[in-house]
Amino acid sequence: MTEFTTRTTSPFRYDIVGSFLRPQELKEARAKFANGEITQADLTAVEDKSIINLIKQEEAAGLKAVTDGEFRRSYWHLDFFWGLQGVKHVNLEHGYFFHDEETRNDSAQISGKISGENHPFVEHFKFTQAHTSDGVQVKQTIPAPAQFLEEFLRPENQANAKEFYPNQEDLDHDVATAYHQVIEDLYAAGCRTLQLDDCTWGISVNAFANLKKKDPHADVSQLEALQKRFLKVNNEAIANLPADLTINTHVCRGNYHSTWAAAGGYGPVADTLFAKENVTAFYLEYDSERAGGFEPLSKVPDDKYVVLGLITSKSGELEDKAAIIKRIHEAAQFHPLDKLCLSPQCGFASTEEGNILTEEQQWKKIALVKEIATEVWG
């Protein structure tokens, strides 16, 4: 019988991405706060209560690394951007376009020099840590630095970025430096597991697929240059950090109200992302044909982990256990089985709207992840 390495730090054999469905009480409190019916203190009290309850549920489910469910956020990424110095909350004409749906129209724009001092997520982490049992790790999720840059590639935001940062290199440097500051502050607060959530690679493979569909011989040099830019800012942000800080990344193709935004296999980004990003593990969406095959996993160095997102968070229907186990072994043809783990493909509520499933179905998904992982890796 094969013996597998016992995981004592993230990623774990059965794992999560980060966000959970918001409980009804929290949804109602956020709506009341938006309407001016309750104070910030009132909302924070409901958030605190909801997070404490969630942590208990995560621990009861056997998770070895828990999150606050992103319960204090409206979006998985924008709330972090708004917490940086020199960044403001704006509303654009349109939101993000997903398959058959459009999100709310919130965005972020630059209002001054970007820096990372006094980010509110540090206090959020401290609260979660204080209410987590001994022996259970707290995973802090934040959007990747590349995701911040992606926000300013939106046509509506490009002029704003150039106004404050005429030189692209200056913007990239300040973003990496700001992130590094936040990460150092999180570490000082006790954080030892950090996850960079990054849809830029999903957007990139979608762009490659669309371009090649129009012309198989199309010039992809601009897309490749953008990949290098994203890789550089991510790696600079996480350079020279303490050795006992585990940094992973999560890649997906959009997750809003059970819809998606991009499609395409990992092939076009494998040589850049998998081979060169300085993280411990890649949490990868693999719950549909839109993610392509497992062949690109051969580009992941053998000392890195891949967390297979084979269980969808977009619906409540439970996957067939045997089929998932078969897919894990198919992936192991391209990356060692001992370096594989299992999770849902994304969070259950990347925005406060959440995906279209019930809380009961959400926890059954988590239980299935654990059951399968235990059967495969022990």
Automatic annotation (TrEMBL):
Pfam families membership: Meth_synt_2 (PF01717)
This enzyme's EC code(s): 2.1.1.14
The keyword Transferase belongs to this UniProt entry's keyword annotation: yes
Keyword RNA-binding: no
Superkingdom, taxonomy of origin: Bacteria
Keyword tags: Methyltransferase, Transferase
NCBIfam families attached to this UniProt entry: PRK06520.1 (NF005085)
GO biological process, one term: methionine biosynthetic process
Source species: Limosilactobacillus reuteri
Molecular functions per Gene Ontology: 5-methyltetrahydropteroyltriglutamate-homocysteine S-methyltransferase activity; zinc ion binding
UniProt protein name: 5-methyltetrahydropteroyltriglutamate--homocysteine S-methyltransferase
Domain Cobalamin-independent methionine synthase MetE C-terminal/archaeal as annotated: residue spans: 17-353
Signal peptide: none
